[in-house]
Design brief:
Endonuclease, Chain A; alpha+beta; globular; 2 domains; 222 residues; eight-stranded mixed sheet
Length: 222
């Protein structure tokens, strides 16, 4: 029993140490050490990006090879940038793309407003209407950009807005939002499949997807 507990504590300590190294360094040379530890602990943690935006080059590479894609975003700005543009341009794309964005106009108390309250404490230019309008704009962009595809589905949710998940059949990019920083400035974890973090990311997505509502098609262009 003592050896079993020691093994668990050693694994947790090693994971914590390497996670901290990844945050402090955020450089490719240390990734092999993080990956080696993740295989030992079963976490699947392969890389740690100091900022979410630093992962976009690798994310674009993974999206081009993906058989399916699942996105749970807190605002969705990344979906309108170049990293995702091949999915909407008619180029060879995954067989299935599922996207979750916050509901900008829920009938009950809004979790999006709770996120606004957090961000407005450190960003005085960030207003409730600004956040809602950004989400509305991203939803409109996606409904129009994907209206000719039957393989892309967009839903909205009104649940805790605490993380971003971008997952493929190979890996997941997981960002936990801080109460004192924008998501783009938060660390991003790269979790390989299979692994504890990868499984947790998919479970988070599926739980949200189950309680989300389909969006209405965009109005015809005039």
């Amino acid at each position: 029993m003592t050896e079993f507990l020691f093994g668990i504590l050693s694994s947790l300590a090693a994971s914590t140490l390497l996670f901290a190294l990844g945050l402090l360094r955020g450089a490719r040379p240390v990734w092999w050490l993080v990956a080696a530890c993740s295989r030992y602990t079963g976490t699947g943690l392969g890389r740690v990006y100091r900022h979410q935006s630093a992962a976009e080059r690798d994310l674009a590479h993974d999206l081009r090879r993906a058989r399916w894609v699942k996105v749970l975003a807190g605002r969705g700005n990344v979906l309108t940038r170049e990293v995702f543009s091949p999915l909407w341009s008619g180029a060879p794309s995954p067989r299935s793309v599922q996207i979750l964005l916050p509901d900008p106009d829920p009938r009950e108390e809004s979790w999006l407003d709770r996120r606004f309250q957090e961000v407005s404490r450190f960003d005085p230019g960030f207003t409730r209407d600004l956040l809602r309008n950004q989400v509305r704009t991203n939803i409109e962009y996606l409904t129009r950009a994907t209206r000719s595809s039957d393989d892309i589905e967009l839903r909205t949710y009104n649940l805790p807005n605490n993380c971003r998940v971008i997952a493929t059949d190979r890996a997941a990019y997981l960002t936990f939002y801080s109460a004192s920083a924008h998501g783009r400035n938060s660390p991003c974890l790269y979790a390989r499949a299979p692994g504890i973090l990868y499984t947790a990311a998919l479970r988070q997505f599926e739980a949200t997807w189950t309680h989300a509502a389909p969006t209405h098609p965009a109005a015809p262009l005039t």
